[in-house]
Amino acid sequence: MTRKAEIGERLGEVEAQIAQACRAAGRGRDQVTLVAITKTYPADDVRILAELGVRDVGENRDQEAAEKARACADLALTWHFVGQLQTNKVRSVVGYADVIHSVDRARLVTAISKEAVRAGREVSCLVQVALDDDPERGGARLADVPGLADEIAGADGLRLGGVMAVAPLGEEPGRAFGRLAEVAGLVRGRYPEATMVSAGMSGDLSEAIAHGATHVRIGTALLGRRKPFVR
C-alpha cells in the first residue's frame, strides 16, 4: 500500500467517525473542522493530506512547524500552532501560524500582538483552558479565562477565536469537555464572534463533538503511531 493510499484510508475512517459523532449530537458535518496534527511526520505527508482535501494542519513544535510551513508554502493551508508557546518563539510562530491555540497568559498576548503588528498579520488566538491542575500541560485557570479573552480581544493584530483545551488524564472526557463548553459559552456571551472550540483528539473526538467542539485535532488516527521524539 502506498503512503497516499494508507493516509487516504485512515482519513476516510476519521471522517466517518466525525460524521457519526455529528449525527449523534444533532450537528451538521460542516460545523466541525478537522485539524491534521502532523508533528514528527514529513512535509510529504502534509502534501498528501492536502491532495486528499485536508486544509487545516497543526503542529506543536516551532522548529519543525516552521520548516514544514516553508516547504509547503505553495499550498493553500491554514496552519495551527497547538503546542505550548514560549515568548522567544513567538516571532517565528507568527510568521506562519494563522491560529494559535495555546494562549494561556497575558505576557504571551503582548508578545504575539507585537509580532503580529510587526509582520502586518492578523492572528487568531484561542484561550487555552486548564481543565486540571497539571502545570505541565499549560492552560489558564478557569477564573482567569475572561480576563485573558479581554486581553486578546483588545490587542492589535489579534483576533479572539475562542477556547481550546486538552482532556485531563484519567478523567472521563465528556465531563471535562462539558466544563469547556460552559467556559466557551461565557466567552461567546462577551464576544459573539469567538465561536471556535478546539477540543478532541484521536481518542476522544466523539465526546468533544458531543460537547460543541468546532475543531478536532487528529494526528495518530490519521498518520499512525508516532516515533518517540529525540531532542
Automatic annotation (TrEMBL):
<protein>
    <recommendedName>
        <fullName>Pyridoxal phosphate homeostasis protein</fullName>
    </recommendedName>
</protein>
<comment type="function">
    <text>Pyridoxal 5'-phosphate (PLP)-binding protein, which is involved in PLP homeostasis.</text>
</comment>
<feature type="domain" description="Alanine racemase N-terminal">
    <location>
        <begin position="14"/>
        <end position="225"/>
    </location>
</feature>
<dbReference type="InterPro" id="IPR011078">
    <property type="entry name" value="PyrdxlP_homeostasis"/>
</dbReference>
<comment type="similarity">
    <text>Belongs to the pyridoxal phosphate-binding protein YggS/PROSC family.</text>
</comment>
<dbReference type="InterPro" id="IPR029066">
    <property type="entry name" value="PLP-binding_barrel"/>
</dbReference>
<dbReference type="Pfam" id="PF01168">
    <property type="entry name" value="Ala_racemase_N"/>
</dbReference>
<feature type="modified residue" description="N6-(pyridoxal phosphate)lysine">
    <location>
        <position position="39"/>
    </location>
</feature>
<dbReference type="InterPro" id="IPR001608">
    <property type="entry name" value="Ala_racemase_N"/>
</dbReference>
<keyword id="KW-0663">Pyridoxal phosphate</keyword>
